[in-house]
Structures are given as structure tokens and as C-alpha cells.
Automatic annotation (TrEMBL), chain A:
Subcellular location: Cell membrane
Membrane topology of this protein: Multi-pass membrane protein
Annotated GO CC locations: plasma membrane
PROSITE patterns attached to this UniProt entry: ABC_TM1 (PS50928)
Species, as recorded: Glycomyces algeriensis
Protein name: Metal transporter
Family membership: Belongs to the binding-protein-dependent transport system permease family.
Main location: membrane
Signal sequence, start to end: 1-20
Domain called ABC transmembrane type-1: residue spans: 93-301
Stretches that traverse the bilayer: 97-120, 132-160, 172-192, 231-258, 278-304
Keywords carried by this UniProt record: Cell membrane, Membrane, Signal, Transmembrane, Transmembrane helix, Transport
Superkingdom: Bacteria
Record has Transmembrane as a keyword: yes
TrEMBL record, chain B:
Protein name per Swiss-Prot or TrEMBL: ABC transporter substrate-binding protein
SUPFAM superfamilies for this protein: Periplasmic binding protein-like II
Gene3D superfamilies linked to this entry: Dipeptide-binding Protein, Domain 3 (3.10.105.10), Periplasmic binding protein-like II (3.40.190.10)
Glycoprotein found in the keyword field: no
GO molecular function per UniProt: peptide transmembrane transporter activity
GO annotations of cellular component type: ATP-binding cassette (ABC) transporter complex; periplasmic space
Transport in keyword set: yes
Automatic annotation (TrEMBL), chain C:
Source organism (scientific name): Glycomyces algeriensis
Domain ABC transmembrane type-1: 62-248
Protein name per UniProt: ABC transmembrane type-1 domain-containing protein
Predominant subcellular localization, coarse grouping: membrane
Keyword match Metal-binding: no
Protein keywords: Cell membrane, Membrane, Transmembrane, Transmembrane helix, Transport
Family named by the database record: Belongs to the binding-protein-dependent transport system permease family.
Amino acid sequence: MIRFLAALAVRAGLLLVVLAAVYAAADALPGDPVRLAMGPTASPADVEARRESLGLDRPLPARFADWLSGLVQGDLGTTVRGQPINDLLGDRLASTLLLTGLTFAFVLVVALAWAALWSARPRGRFGRTSAVGTSILVATPEFVLGTLLVLVFALVLGLLPATTVVGADGRLATPLMLVLPVLALGLPHAAWQTRVNRAAIAEAAAMPHVEQARLDGVPERRVVTRHVLPLAAPTIAASLATMVGTLLAGAVVVETLFNYPGAGQLVAGSLESRDTTLLVSLTALCGLVVVAALVIADAIRLWALRGRR
Amino acid sequence: MVAASRRVLLGSSLAAATVTAVAACGGTDDEGGAGGAPREGGTLRVGALGSVEALTKDPHGLLSNNSDFLIMSLVYDALTVPGGGTGVAPRLAESWSVADDAKTWTFTIAEGASFHDGTPVIAADVVASMKRIIVDMDAAFKVPVPPEQITALDDRTVQMVTEDPNSQLPLLLRLVTFTTREGADATAFNGTGPFKLEDYTDGNARLVRFDGWHGPRPLLDAIEVTRFESTDAMMNALQGGQIDLATTAGAVSARLAEESGAFTVHRRPNDAALPIVMRVADGPFADVRVRTAMRLIADRDALVQQALSGYGTVANDVLGTGDAFYDTSLPQRAQDLDTARSLLAEAGFDLDATYTLYTIDEAFGEVAAATLFAEQAAKAGVTIEVVEQDAGTFYDQTWCKADLYTMFWGTNDSVAFYAQKVLQSSSETNETGWASEDFDRAYGDLLAATDPAAQEDASHRMQRLEYDESGYLLWGMADGIDLHTPAVNGLSTAPGFGWVLLEGAWLAS
Amino acid sequence: MKRRLVPLAAWVALVALAPLLPITAGEGAMPFADPGAGHPLGTDALGRDVLAGAFEGGLLLLTVAAAIALIVTTLSALLGSLAALHRRAGRAIDAAADAFILVPPVIGVLLVVLAWPGGGLPALLAATVLFGVPYCAKVMRSAASAVAATGYVEAARASGESTARVIAVEMLPNLAPTLVTQLGLRFTEGLYVVSAVAFLRLPGVLDEGNWAVMVRDNAPGMLLNPWAVAAPAACLLITVILVHTGLGARREEP
């Protein structure tokens, strides 16, 4: 428990350092957020007045401290245009978590099933196909895969909507609109996770005491559930936890590609408009989700190692 | 990313003939879709671009999103709107006049104008709104009048006294001067416009006709505005039947629509200027002969054909092509590489150096135009390297500073607008460092003139100087392009922000 | 091993030599024209020949991805070996890896590249290396730890050889299989990051035509000329497949 809490504290500390670094880096970017927001028609005097109204003329540490104390109280501050970030993010964060959550579940199921089949028949056609197939998928950028998926399923076959449209009531017109985004985001990750799962299972199966259990005549099912999976679990969990971060990063691209109304769309925009507060708020939320995932993985590892010290 | 149902794909080979394009002339209204007599009723579903981080519910805020701007323009009334022979049409102000000093303006509020909650509009509401824009929102550039000089003379008359003579005030007040109720929440969508808000989520809105509007009764029952992050996504929605009208869709989309044959291309000429900007104050382009040579290097037809896919018109280095006093008697410049070469030689222009042309992906065809111009310049022996920058860097390091860059102005169509913002020597956002006493004097004359003949004379003098000496290479004007199903009719062709004027639109059955 | 490299080598040679072919992009054609006379795969968003673009668009992309792979792998191998020998360095690398996991690489790379306007390729390289090394070094460390625990490394250290010499002579040669695998993975990772940067329209970096930019720029005209997207996408996929079968990620990393 103490180890677990220590790991948690370290991760929280790291997040704080990372946020400060991102805030400082974003703030140092060339470009003036207020000028960008007001456009070229505004006069320099207007821009300066606006900057003061927004408090952007204060020094960096003061602004960061302000934002941080707001974060603790659940208030992320305002954008350069004066919009409350909480309003902006509310529903979008839920949408992004829906997309990445569905994708995570997709990856979990597909990768486990695929790795199980692959481990059962490591050689032969299935094994070779899997090796090449996962290689291709792992390395295909989401936007290339997404573009090709749209070409095939929306354009040529006309089976699925190519873009996400939200009505004035704020809901997706049809849940089918989630299919292509989940596939574009999920397939590369599923392929990666399949390879990790398979390797972890193979490694665990090769351990001497697992071999011994088999030789002792323990039923195969029991060998898998009692010996192989617990051994493989920490590796699989660690990889899944790391994946949460890359899923969120992938959402940045996929949401833009499919017009999906999530928070990922905001990332590129916040950088483009040099909106430091918005960017660091997004980084914080993403970081919190990743930290949560890593902490769960830590817990699984400690559980798997229990009594083996 | 473009996709369509199979229906659209199959349709492309069959019905290529339904596409019409409006002739390139100004004015308002309208090219036929399915046509027939104007019909009442129906819901128009409109797509407009808008990014999340720029969303705003404040009509006096920074409306950078097309989607927000469209919603505001339908829910609220500005004092004046684009249109008519002079480029200015009445809206919340039914009429205006100026005293002989060309400074003291009075605007009369339209008879019967009222807010959506039923309260009549009074002059105090207009005054409060203008002051809120200038003072609270730090946007003095939208209303060039000192706030203390905006007063209510009576319930229906607003007086604005400008610091210097300004005969162009009604023009400069178009669309930005949305009026909210004095003392009420300005973000509550309680407007005075032709449509009132029924539902709003995340930049998407459903608007229904406001039967108490002071203007001519709109034919549409409702307008639904859907916000899109990208043109591609908007085009997907149009082709998937999710919207009827895609606003400011760009040239590639227009070609797509023309090929599919299922949609009508609505062109608004003189919509956007994409000039190449040369620094006049100093640097390699300070010599007027060099600037003239660059202007003669440009193959304007090729630029319009390739960078704009043909959706545009050749221009003549004068900004404000939609102006009522636009001077068509200036000889059209065309490519003349021999003259360009000899001018460059005369000026001692260094042909061994490489010149950087900064560009930014802000408008359709902007980067493409820079690339194509660099290719054309190579034919005259001038080596130009195109460097694309992101907006943050561009407006920080290049805009108003660099020797050579591209710019995008999609906000106005008048000679006076550009004079005020970027041409007069005293402008803080003078993009070229051009300081011409003659031009400043001519601009002053324009602002002080109250009769049209004197205004025209001053405007022509300004344009002549701009044509001869300024730092602008304006090779063409991009059309504004909206795409719609044949059922949509009655769209405005006014340049600039004419696409937001949907109160006259109607749907054929 | 060698035979598996043949297709990859042939592809790299093709990509490297293709720009020399007498096919010019041409100019003045209509954008997104259908395949036809003079343009076997039609034209792209600027009316240039798609085939010529595909021929010209590979070399730079592959070079950048290969540079990323080489730099990241080499640095990581050195750091990983160091970490395996010194506990403190090991902890520092773990902490760095844990910290960098918290920032989505897209944000990180965008930040670095935007912070360095006009930085162009060096900026992109620096960013990808910065965000690639901590994770890769962690993997390298676990491989190096196994090597460090073998008798001859311990013997060499006990005999007072310098850390640099131990790493160079005793450890790196024994890390060869992991190095090759990592090289392949970092190459695809590099290709991936470069493509993502291209997709997010980061100007000033890789503006010249390349497969990733072609997919991005031509996507709006996919209906008009599908080849403008399909051809560069296919080139990217072929590269990825050949790298994986050639450098073979046989041993997966967790």
C-alpha cells in the first residue's frame, strides 16, 4: 500500500512538472494570442487594451499559479476570447471519453482474442498473416487509415457515414457515426496490443514452473488461468495503460478527420491560436486520465507480484 | 476527405446540367435553383465553418467563426448591411444622414423594430450596444467613433460624431453593429433580427422566423445552422443530405459539386482579396520600378485558373474591387516579362539573390498562388522561395514587417476600408510601410466629401496612386462560393459577408 | 535475415532513383483531373501529375524517418546501457519516461516545432528525438540489464574498465538483436509522427511534396481523382510493410 501511494505521489508530482513545462513552452511560442483572436482589422491599441482586460499582461508565474489554483477548484479559466473553458470542454470531454472508451474496449477484446488465437497456432498461415497484418496496421497513421476507410466504406460502398454531424440538440444524428472513428483509432492500437499480448503470453508460457505444471498433468485451461495469465497480466496492463495516452493523442487526429465533437479537436486549435490556458487545461485533463490508467497498472503489477518477494 | 452516398456517385454521370453559376456582377439576389415563384415555408439547413475554441455567444465579441457570425446576423440586426448600389443597405437603421461637416451622423431606427421578447428598440439600446463594443470588448476598430460621442437624440434617433470627417461611416458599420437590449444579458440571444433562437448547442442553432420583424417577412419558417470544423466535413454533410446549403465552401468543393451535378454553385464575386504584399518603405522592393516589374511578372489569368480553379476574376492591383466607385478605366495589367526584366535591370535589382515570399494557409488558394507566382517569377530571372508560416508566427513576425508576403482580406469591399486599415500612412497596420502624401490627401478628401461626385473624384485619385505606386500586387479576386441543393433560392450575391444575408432565401418545393 | 532485406533494399533504391526518372510534374493542368493522356494517375490539388508526385515524394520522407530511427535508437542504446550500469541513471530515465508519457506526443512535437519558426527539418528531428528517446531508452535498459548481469560485463567492470569502454565493447554488441528491432519500430514511429505533423498542417516543415502531405492535400478531391490519395497512401503502406518484414520485429517489446 505504501509502495502504491508512493508511486501515486511520484506520478502526481511528474504531472505538475509537465504542466508547468507545457505552460511555459506554450507561452514562449512566437505569436500573440490576442492579435490572432482579434484579427488584422484590430488596431494595436485595441489589442493592447484587450490583453489587459484578460490579464494576459501579468507575468507567467502569476498566471500559472492562478490557473493551478483554479484547476484544484475545478475551474479551468477562460480562453483568449473570454469563453469559460469549463463550458467549452464539458460535453466535449464526455464525447472524447466515449470515443476513446469505446476504442479501448474494442482494442481490449480484439487484441486478447487475436493474441489467444495466434498463441494457439503460432506457425502456419494464421501466424504469418497475423505477423504481417499487425505490422501493417501498427504503422499506418490514423489519418491515412481513416482516409482509406472513408474511401471504401463511405464513398465506394456507401455503408457508413463519413462525417459526424451534431444536431442543435447536441446529439449525434446516428450512433453509426462512431464506427469509422473507432476503427481508424482502434485498429492500429489493437494490432500493437495483439503483438504485446502474444509476446507476454509466450514469455509466460515458457517459464519453467508453467512447463512443470503442464508436465504434472494440470488441465490446460487451469494452466492458462492460474499460471500464464497472472504472469502475463502486468505486462499487458502496463501496455494498455501506456496506450491510454496514445489513444488520446490519436483522438486529436481522428476527431479532426471525422468532425467528431470531442476535446481532441481543440488541441491543434489551441496551439494555432496560442491559447496557453486552453492548451494546458487540455494537457492537464489528458494527463489526469493517463495518470489514472498508470496507477491502475501499478496496482495490477503490485497485485501480481504479491507474495513473490 | 470527401464522401458521398452511392446515389451521388451514380448521379454524377447523369445530371451534370443542373449547375448554374451566376454572372460576375454585383448587386443582390439571385440565381435560379429549381426556381418558380418564391414559396413560403420550410426549414433551410445551413452548414458553416467554425472552430470550437473560437465559439462565442456574445454578438459583440470576436466573431471569428463563420457559424457564429451567421447565427448573430440572423438573430440580431446591425445598423447597416452590405448590398445595394452603394454597397450599404439599411437594416436596423432605416435611414441616415450627415451634416455638412461630414462628422455629425444621425441614424434613424426602423419603424416598428422590436426585440424578440416584444420590447420596442429604442435609441438607448443602440447607444449602449455601440459603447459595449468599443469599451467593454476593446473593439474600437469596429465602431470608429469616440464612445462619448454616441448619443440618443430621441427614442428613434442615434447621433454619432466622428473625430475627423468620415463620409464612409455607414459603410464601416455594416454587420458589426449588432444591437442588444440596454442593461440585459447580451448573450441571451434576445435580438431584433428576422429569426429568433429556439435551440443552441455548441455552435449549432435552430432559428425560427420572428414574425414581429420590422423588415419584409422572411419566407422560411426556420433556419438550422450546423457548425463544421472543416470544409471536407461540411461537403460530406451536403452530399449526405444532412444540409441544404454549404456556405463559403471554396473552389475545390465547387468543382466537386459541378462534377457531381447534384448541387448548384452560388458565386459571390469580389469576395476575397489575396494580394501579394511588397514592402515599400525599405528593402529590395522600395524602388517603384521593382514593384511595377513584379506586377508585370504575374500571369493573372493563370493564377486565377490554377490557384482559384477559375472561381475568381483578374484584378488590377487596386484593393476594393467591389466599391461603387471602383475605377474600371485603369488599364488592366497583364504579364509582360520583357518590360519587367528591363525595369528590374534599370532599378539595379539583384537577380542573384533569393527572395523569400512568406505565405499562410488562411484562404483557399493563398499558398497555391504564392507557389505559382514563384514559378512565374523564375521566368523573369527572379528567384523566389516560398515559406509557409502558421498564423501565430505570421502575424507576429511577417505581417506589416516582411519584404514580401501574401495576405488575405475577406472582410470588406470598399476602397475606403483598405485606405483606413492598410494604406494611409498613419495606419498602425500599414502593411507595406507606404507613405504617400498624395494618397493621404485624396483619402482625406473622400472622407470630407458629402456629394457623390466629389467622393468619386477622390476615390479615383486614391485608386490611381494605389495602381501606380503602392506595394500591392492584387492579381485576382476570389469568388465567395456557396453550394446548395437546387431547391434553395434567393441567396444574396453581395460581396464580403453577403452570404450571411439569408432572410431573403426560400425553398422550392 | 539477409534475404528478407532484399525487397526493402529494392524499394529504397526505387524510391531513391525515382526522382531521376524523366517524368515531370507539369503545370497548368486542371486540379484533380481524371487519369488520362500525359497523366497516368491524373492530377493533384494543384493540377500536377500524381505519378510524378508519388515518385518524388518518398525520398525525403524516408530519409527523415530513417534519421529519426537512427538517432533515437543510438541515443537510447547508450542511455539504456548507462542506466543498466548505474542505478541513479536508471531512475532518471524511468522518471523521464514516466513524465513524457503524460504529454501526448502530438502536443509535444507541435510545441517544439512551433517554438522554432523556420526551424524546419532540424526542429522536427529534435522534437521527435526528444519525445522518442525516453521510452526507447527504457526498453533498451531492460535489455541491457540482462546483458549487464552476465559474468563478463561484471568481470570487465571489476577489472576497472571505464564505463564508456564497457558499454562500447561489452554491451552494445550484445544488444544487436534489440537494436535492429528497435530500429524498425522507431522507423515506423518516425514515419508516423512525420505523417501526423503533416496532417495537422504544420507549415514550414516538410512543405515539399511527400506522400503524407499528398494524402492530406488531395483528400478534398478524393471523389474527383481517387488516385491522388490512393497512390501516396499505397506508397506509405508498402514502405511500412517492407520495413517490418525486413527489419522484423520478431521479439515484441512490452
